[in-house]
Every structure is written in structure tokens, then in C-alpha cells.
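Form 7-S
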Amino acid sequence: MLSLAARRGPDREAIVAGRRRVGFAELESRANRLGNALLGLGLAPGDRVALYMPNCIALVEAMAAVLKAGGMILPISTRLAGPEIRFMLEDAEPFALIYTPALREAARDAAAGMGDVRLMVAGKPQAGEHALESLIGAAADSPPVRAETGNDDAVLCYTSGTTGRPKGAISTQRNLVINQGWMNAVEWRLTAADRTLVATPMAHRTGVARIASSFCLGSALVLQERFDPEEAVRLIAEEHVSHIGVVPTIARLLLPAIERAPEACATLRTMLATGEAFPVELKGRLFAALPQLGLHSFYSQTEAGTISNLRPEEQARLPDSCGLPFQGVEVRLVDAALDDVAAGEPGEVLVRCGEPGAISVMREYFRRPEENRAVFVDGWLRTGDVARRGEGGYLYFVDRLKDMIVSGGLNIYSREVEDALLRHPGVEDAAVIGVPDAEFGEAVMAFIKPAGNQAPSEEALIEHCRQHIAGYKKPRHFRFVDEMPRNSTGKIAKHRLREAASLAISGRER
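Output:
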């Protein structure tokens, strides 16, 4: 797909990063050379190449090279801590680790003692390192000849780990080409003329999706190394950006800059939002500032790919929905016995889209046979998410199954309590977990980030909740925080909240 884009538009911009602009022909040539260099060093089909880099041209070149050579991309977020990186490296056993000079110390510390890992740097090398430029300069420009093994594995993306240790989900070349080059392109209405601002880290499946979409469509990527709202708006204006993908946290941070200069975003045609629920109030402000914007708020998962989408023309009518199942995607909602639930009832989301690895669903977890047997049931992927079907078959996300609270024998979905709390003007962010309770088994504990300098009182929040949800669902414990702990994708890390709650309740926290 990349080679075809280079032949059709050799001088067409593929990547814009700062002052550098790379055309498709140049990207194709450098990816070929680096792919041949990796094969020359002994890369075998299915070998993992870890990429620990910010959004930059070298990252896109390395991704293309690894795919061309038949290896697997292992993207690692630059926001991860040393032990988290070390876990991924030990679990994946990569052939090579590629990083930038600014991340050298963290990269080498994480890989210390792993003698089989080749260290490669996108910059001036030090002892024990290969320089990417030297590898590219010495290798042949011809397309890499990869062994015909039938291995189609392309990407090893680790889950976000909001509930514990992450797992490596394997996506195939078919996943990338069919899902990004066809299904997503049709649904998002993207073409080669689109220019996409990449403001979130490419070290996740949604980030790799931006790359795959560019290669398949021949469209341009405008990279922002580190998200900055004012800089993002400037890039949208200067680079005539037509398309952007965000998580709601990024949209929330970006919105004030958009509201200050909506005319700068006149070319912005499409926004994709996923990762967590997109607040209705945020949608209203966004559409008021940019009435021309088409918002796709979709429900996705590292393991499942895109599950459903709420299209721009449906946003006003069904603002709380996450849309209809994606084209070609089958969805079931089931109870604990894996029987289909009644219409309107919440149930665990099961997803199927052809064979695992064929279209959008991952092939399997990397080296996790027991978990693969648990997550796949008769070809259906168990997502661990809870949703319900509304009128017309539209899906409504309810909660993560692991985040459901059982109090006095009654199910309480943390999401509905969080939604109620977020309606209070004094609450900027909210997260809810279950904590042990001697009388009811579990009780609701709410973590609140106040919207201003003065936090609302617990009594005011309880009274507010009574107006929106049943009394048994209201929080019994509160904790006010300056910031929510988030993982590298921007999702709230509830396992860290549970750790904090355990300490607080046990009295060990001062």
C-alpha cells in the first residue's frame, strides 16, 4: 500500500513534522533501506521491534520498515515508567529497541541485562548502539524480500492496563489494511486529500491506525511531538488540517484554544473521538465553536478494533449513544451464562468480525494461551465491557464489567454515577470505584477533581446525585484530588484509585 502511494504521488506529502516535510517516495525509499538493514541483522518473520519514540518522522519510517521486513511493531508510550517498559520488553522479547537520544537513558535502563536486544538510536550513536541513519545509508533501496512463511502478524499493542498488568494483543497486516484502508476510510469518509493532525501518541493501536490509513489512502500526517492546545490550533490553520483523532481528555484540553480562535479551524472537517465516553456538554461546546465539524464518537478496544460508531448526523439526536455496530461487525450482549439478554437490558459485549485476525478483531494475546481460551468463545471476543441496546439497535456503553459495584445485592454501574457527578457545575472530573462495606458488601467511593478553587461539599454532591440516580447508587465516600491518575492513553487508571482507597480505608494513609 505504501509502495503504491509512492508510485501514484511520489512528491505528495506523507509526513509533516516541524520544518521537515517528507514525500511518499522518500518515505518509501528510507523504509525499504531500513527494512533491508533489519533483515541483514537477522530479523526473522514475526520478530518484535520495540519503538520507544515520540511522534516523529523516524517513528513512521521505522514502523514502515518493520512491516516491510515482516517483523512486528511493538510501540511503547513515552509516558510509561521504567518498570512498565521493562515488563513489556521482558514479555515481548524484542529483536531490537529503537529510541531517540532524549530517551536513551530510560531505554537502556529498561533493556539492561537483556543481551539479545539490539539497541538502535534515531540520532548520534554511543557505544553498543546502531545509528538508524547509518543503517539506512548502507542498505539497498530495493523492496525487502520477506520470507514466505504465512505469518501475517504486524503489531503487538499492549492493553492500557487500567485494571492491572497489560497484555499484548496481536494485530495482523490484514487487520491494518482491511480495517484502516477500507472499513475506517469508508466510515470516516476519508480520502487521499485529507490531512490528519496526529496530536496523541502513536504508541497505541489507534496511533498505528493513523499510519496504516496514511499508507493505504496516500494521505498526509501532520505530527505534533507533544500535545499542546495552542500549537495544535496553529498547526490546523497553517497545514490546512482536515481530520483529527482525539480522546475526550485531549478534546477537553483543546476546546478552550478552539473557542479563542474558531476561524483558525475552518478547514477542520472531521474529528474522531474514542477511548472513553465523550461528555454531552463537551459536544455542545464543540459544535457551538465549530458548526462545520463532523464528529464521529466511536467505541473501540485494542483487542476488538472499532466496534460501533455514532455518526455526525446522529450526534444531536442520540448524544449519549456510541452508535450502531461498525460495518461487518457483529455484536451480542450476554449475561454471566453467556446467554443473550433481553432487549434494553445491560449485558457484556461480545464481538465477532470474521476469524480473529482477519478483519478487525485481534488474532490473539501474545503468549497467553489460558487467557486466549477465556476471551474467545465460539469465535466471539469477550470485551469485558457492559452495554445495552436502545431503540433502533443503537448501543449505549454502560461500564467496564470489572468496574461494576454490587451493593446490597444490587448492581451499580460506575459510569452512571460518574455521569451524575459530572453534571454538577463544581465537578471537572469524576471517577467511581467500589470499596468494601461491612453492611452492604460494597459501597460507592467517588474521586472528585473540583472545577474551581472551592470544592463542592460532600452533602451538596450527595443531594445532587439524588436528583439524577437512585438513592442506593449515591457515593458513601468521597476523595478530592488535584488530578486523576491516567494511563498512557489518557484513561483513568482505576487500579491506582483502588490502591489509594485501600490505604485510606485501612487508615495507613496520613
